[in-house]
Amino acid sequence: MNEEELSRIQAIAEAALLAAGKPLPLEQLRELFAEDERPARQVMEHAMMLLGNACEGRGFELRKVASGYRLQIREEFAPWVSRLFEEKPQRYSRALLETLALIAYRQPITRGEIEDIRGVAVSSNIIRTLLEREWVRVVGHRDVPGRPAMYATTRQFLDYFSLSGLGQLPPLSEIRDLEEIGREVEKNMQAEIEFDSAQAKPAGDNPPDQTFH
């Protein structure tokens, strides 16, 4: 495949990602092409690498997350871009952040197990918010009396925080005290949450509302 054909594949992929406003998997990008001109998987991967290189020095970047590839504003430009929007991001409680951290690091985990670790009850509103945002889901039920639901993070959680897998979470050899968990997760995720509020508006009609406190 010559350079001109690769450039065309790269341009088509770029246009599709800009139009989609959400991550697109490699196979879906390949299916944009008619069967007789569909690039091989290896060729498509090479085109995506070239697209990523072409974004260097620009205000946006190509990022590979759990659901595929997406074009997004570079994090360092979020303070300026966020000024385009009057709405202020909704702020979530530290209790929600701690609950999300425990699910991320100890999944699958039940509400009762979260409460045992935190030492306080988990509000139904926290679980509902995490489920509504599709950051966590029920993956089964613990085989104990009452069969409590077990929670785990979702692909949307990984996409939201620009992660391709759970292995990219900040390493924790074990769950330590909750203040330390909160600080470590907040340090690694706060920038992504605030940054996402700057780019969420162009991709859809919903106002940005993604900041913990």
Automatic annotation (TrEMBL):
Keyword vocabulary terms for this entry: Cytoplasm
Record keyword Transmembrane helix present: no
UniProt cross-references to InterPro entries, sorted A to Z: ScpB_csome_segregation
Region (Disordered): 194-213
Keyword Lyase: no
Pfam families, alphabetized: SMC_ScpB
Protein's UniProt name: SMC-Scp complex subunit ScpB
Organism of origin: Marinobacter salexigens
